[in-house]
Input
Amino acid sequence: MSQDELKEKLARACRQVQALEEEIGKVLVGQRQVVREAVVATLAGGCVLFEGAPGLGKTLFVRSLAQTLGGVFSRIQFTPDLMPADITGSNILVESEDGQKSFEFQRGPIFANVVLADEINRATPKTQSALLEAMQEHSVTVGGETRRIDGMFFVLATQNPLEMEGTYPLPEAQLDRFFCKIAVPYPSTEELVAIVRDASKRKKTELRQVLTPDDVLEIGELAEQIPIADELLETVVRVVKNTRPEEPTAPESVRKYVRYGCSPRAALALASAAKISAMLDGRYNVAEKDVIERAPSILRHRVVLNFEGQAENISADAIIADVLAQEKS
Output
């Protein structure tokens, strides 16, 4: 593919994604940054963890995204009594018309294109871990047999950070498999007025399908062809490494408050997100601002604070801000 052909396809992809975001905006007021970060993760083929108080439109956004992308959508409500087989599916005994009995695999809701894992921290760790293989390998192993999840697939999980009673925090190994963690803020005064004023009208809005699952895969592959300079790759690596307390170049806050920093998976995700961010801005090369803008959502769930950091109520976002400030200086 020539450079001109690549630029033409990237420009068309940019217009398609803009149309997608506009369509979602018909039912979701504001939250533009949340929409953009989720779209970036979707195009990168990554899974997303949404964190925010109840009633901020997390589930509405996921449903709206699924409608505009087409494909198969499934919703899993995570509860303490949910079992792994309720997610992956299981072998059940069936009897044919002639009386022969055999086991038949009944697929669970994980076999979809867009999977909403609602309140994921409400289920036990054993059930949470049922998602691990699907999120990383796009496959499910039940009864010794591995079954692929073909085509577009990603998990969009939500969790409430306010009510901790009866919840099971996700382990670091599972958090690392999420492409990004998006903090969903409260709406502004103007946005809240619009939400209340147009509530009945928005409930009746039917969203049209803007992209297909194949379009999403194609756009993601196109974005991967956007060049990233060696200096910016070094920036990506340096930002990730400076979240680790053992690094001599890490900021003082990292060495003091962080127990574990980000894994190589974070560097891969940050480079991929920067490429997609450049494409959505209509550029055909990655700039430093693409790395800086995407870093908080990519890194915040991968920074594990030590006891002192937790005791002093230090946030992962504050740590990342120190790392990025050092990079800019």
